[in-house]
Write a structure and sequence with these properties.
369 residues; SH3 type barrels; Alpha-Beta Plaits; 3 domains; 5-stranded antiparallel sheet; 3-stranded antiparallel sheet; elongated
Length: 369
């Protein structure tokens, strides 16, 4: 394998190979440190506190170091072995190796680096997605955080699998491996899965956008396809709703045709306050407004009320009463609690202001026969 032109050629080869490994490692380390410095500078421009031990810095520099080492090792070692007077008779001349490295080898490195960058970009985008879904503070923060992590993991895994598969196929083509059978098999498998699991895929996609758009949350009161109740679970494929009788209804996300959320962001308590015809309506509305102000100033109810009481005006003139419609804006699912307290305070306020609340009565005719 080695020529005998130089005495001790084997040991010269070992010495030069060790020196080549050292040079390649030092050069790769310097390259990785330059990349780390550039990443830290970019992080400072984005006002992010990071160090060389941060995973977002350590992982890419590690990839850069080993990639540069693998590329530089044959470039350094093979010329060194030839300078030592050793002839490798396996077809690996420095010219051939250099030609491959700066041809197919360089393209493979570019493919791998581009794949890594794409995976990192998708990872950062998924983290932004998680932050967007779980940004608001509320009682269901833990549930929204869990759903956000599920979405982020799904996006990362799907994107990573796709990028790695494409990078592998492109790399195999660069080393002259026929990838046609692989593509044919993948196409047949994808066609079979597409026909057999189209409903499953539809449910997954619909569930994904249902969660991302934050259309419903756990604890919301909603009506799904005509069935009303409380949302108990939101999964990627299904939504679980419990109705007033305690019955559990499971709806596939792709089968939700109509969705009405009755507790999205805020709720309204709306009611008609009936007074008799003899009352001054301006005085009645002023009293209602005063009751609303006192209600909003209550320390226990103030966190539940989002806006002052609205006097919408006269809603109807009925047989023995005038109906005045009022409305108050509350936090989701708190409208009943605020409404009960509002009605409780209206009665004594009307009595103190001498405002008559009509009561049903049955006229009796005492005339002569």
């Amino acid at each position: 394998m080695f020529s005998q032109e130089m005495p001790g050629g084997f040991w010269w080869a070992v010495l030069w190979a060790v020196a080549g490994v050292g040079v390649a490692y030092v050069a790769a380390t310097l390259t990785a440190r330059l990349v780390a410095v550039a990443l830290l500078a970019l992080a400072r421009r984005r006002e992010r506190a990071m160090s060389v031990h941060d995973p977002d810095i350590r992982r890419p520099t590690r990839v850069i170091r080993w990639t540069a080492f693998v590329v530089l090792l044959p470039v350094v070692c093979l010329p060194a072995i030839r300078l030592a007077g050793i002839d490798l008779r396996v077809g690996l001349s420095p010219e051939a190796v250099s030609g491959w490295l700066f041809g197919s080898g360089l393209r493979i490195v570019v493919i791998l680096m581009a794949s890594y960058v794409l995976v990192r970009i998708v990872g950062e985008a998924s983290r932004q997605l998680e932050a967007h879904v779980s940004r608001a503070v509320g009682p269901d923060l833990a549930d929204r955080t869990k759903r956000a992590r599920t979405l982020g993991g799904l996006v990362r895994n799907a994107a990573t699998s796709l990028v790695v598969s494409l990078a592998t196929l492109m790399s195999l083509r660069e080393v002259h491996v026929d990838i046609t059978p692989i593509l044919t098999g993948a196409g047949i498998l994808g066609l079979a899965v597409g026909f057999g699991g189209q409903t499953f895929v539809r449910d997954l996609i619909s569930g994904f956008f249902l969660i991302v758009e934050n259309q419903i949350r756990v604890g919301d009161v909603a009506i799904i396809n005509g069935t009303g109740g409380t949302i108990e679970q939101i999964n990627l494929r299904t939504v679980v709703l419990r109705d007033g009788d305690g019955t559990i209804h499971v709806f596939p996300s792709g089968a939700i045709a109509q969705l009405a959320n009755r507790s999205k962001d805020f709720s309204y308590y709306t009611t008609d306050v009936a007074v008799s015809y003899r009352n001054d309506l301006d005085r009645v509305m002023a009293t209602l407004r005063q009751v609303g102000d006192e209600l909003a100033a209550d320390a226990q109810l103030q966190p539940l009320i989002l806006a002052p009481l609205e006097i919408l005006g006269v809603e109807a003139l009925r047989e023995s009463q005038v109906a005045i419609r009022v409305r108050i804006k509350t936090r989701p699912l708190k409208q009943a609690d605020v409404g009960r307290e509002l009605l409780r305070r209206i009665k004594p306020a009307f009595e103190a202001a001498d405002i008559e609340i009509p009561s049903p009565h049955q006229p009796i005719n005492l005339g002569r026969r």
